[in-house]
Amino acid sequence: MTDLTNQTLAEARRGLRNKDFTSAELTDAFLSSIEGSNGAINAYVAVTADKARAMAKASDEKLAKGEGGALEGLPLGIKDLFATRGDHTQACSHVLDGFKPTYESTVTSNLWADGAVMLGKLNMDEFAMGSSNESSYYGNVVNPWRKTGSTQALVPGGSSGGSAAAVAASLCLGATATDTGGSIRQPAALTGTVGIKPTYGRCSRWGIIAYASSLDQAGPIAKTVEDCAILLKSMASVDPKDTTSVDLPVPDYEAAIGKSVKGLRIGIPREYRIEGMPAEVEALWQQGIAWLKEAGAEIVDISLPHTKYALPAYYIVAPAEASSNLARYDGVRYGLRVPGKDIVEMYENTRAAGFGKEVQRRILIGTYVLSAGYYDAYYLKAQKVRTLIKRDFDLAFEAGVDAILTPATPDAAFAPGEFSDPVAMYLNDIFTVTVNMAGLPGLSVPAGLSSTGLPLGLQLIGRPFGEETLFQAGAVIEKAAGRFTPARWW
Questions:
Q1: Which of 93, 105, 159, 170 is catalytic?
Q2: Which residue range or ranges hold the Amidase domain (predicted)?
């Protein structure tokens, strides 16, 4: 039964429709794998076994009548940032201790409406603030990948580390994730999985715990480009409850898989050749260029001159929005409450005990850059830089570029505790933050292995709402590179 869990989402969908197995059997296989493996990986912070079995049973009844939805009977993992009615929803933070919402996020509502089955809630960096999944209140997630011949634990990336690790370890068919500065694409790259951050506004943010509202966007992590295309079709929608969601038809993303890239113009930005980038990352990038060229795409050198300012601007804008969004966690209405002699001390005690170090750091940075006397010098200037970054991309697309190819991360997965300096950790997002600052779609595809046997990814950046082009080009890279799976040790 356990080999049921090694399928891709598309294969499992086909198997269910052909009646090769039932959703109940598939769901039980995953629940059994989670029970046996989660102790080693720590991907799930809550397993909703009863709910999963009930959903699977309902799916089997629909499939028997030939009435199944697009994701009927397919078991998924849900990042702990998405509100799921009556279930653990805590953004992996102590400050939301015991919180179980009475409402469902729009993205998960869409998935359940299409018949998906919920296995449980996935670990993540606290409030999505981190690049290694080390800031979770529930402990760090362990990457299923290890260096060749080594038993040293590695991080899966973050903040969607639980989502990426669960997919890589075959503990779900696919997972929801969110991306504020690279939190889908970076963990996907470090775990040999595929992840897409859609255009800002493509998926509703309603019912997703906010980090930085102008940057946050939901997307899927899955085993293949095709699986991501299937999931995004169900996740995306306009939503009257989120005024930033866009009222545009959701294309059939799956139809883009296998389409020729002949005639597509792929931009290669010179500013992404950063100092100190490992030679094997540069070599992988060149290999990706060669694959797309062989498939008929035209390669064009481009310039994105304001790229060097993206990281510092991002780490002003994101913490500023975080300090505003996280002000609501005060110990009064829900979650953790640490008593004090008066309401002010109760606030202080609750927030000091409830938030971890990284979250506290970002709240303090954000409050500082928004404070009187510093707003113009920092926040306003960062927003102006953001406009220039977006303009760089606009000019490239206006010049006829269809997509842009870059590395996804500056290196392969690293060991927990390897980055004690926060700034060094923030540099892991160097290739991904520009995409969020400009509101564009970005896809991370596994493209090769490092000299130590760890996965490395390439990133494709698209025009606004150009996800189909990304799936089209991503499938070419995936086909040329082949699939990557970790050697099982867990």
A1: 159
A2: 25-470
Pairing relationship of beta strands 194-197 and 217-222 according to DSSP bridges = antiparallel
Closest C-alpha among 454, 489, 6, 488 to residue 224: 6
Q: Which of 33, 37, 59, 79 is catalytic?
A: 79
DSSP string, 268-291: EEGGG--TT--HHHHHHHHHHHHH
Q: Mind listing the pLDDT tens digit for each residue in 419-442?
A: 888 888 888 889 999 999 999 999
Is 73 a domain residue? yes
- pLDDT tens for each residue of 82-133: 999 999 999 999 999 999 999 999 999 999 999 999 999 999 999 999 999 9
Q: For residue 174, what is the domain's CATH number?
A: 3.90.1300.10
The active-site residue, picked from 93, 160, 183, 444, is 183
Q: Give Cβ neighbours of residue 39 (< 8 Å, ≥ 6 apart).
A: none
223 flagged as catalytic: no
Nearest to 298 by CA among 196, 384, 203, 402: 402
* Among candidate residues 252, 198, 188, 180, the one with its CA nearest the CA of residue 224: 188
Based on the structure, what is the number of domains in the chain? Answer: 1
Q: Which residue has the tokens 């509202």?
A: 213
Residue 465 lies in a domain: no
Residue 164, in any domain of the structure: yes
Strands (E), 56-116: 75-79
Both tokens of 150, joined, read 């080594």
Reply yes or no on whether 197 is catalytic: no
93 is catalytic: no
pTM over 0.85: yes
Please provide the distance, in angstroms rounded to a whole number, between the alpha carbons at the two ends of the chain: 17
Which residues form the domain of 255? 4-261
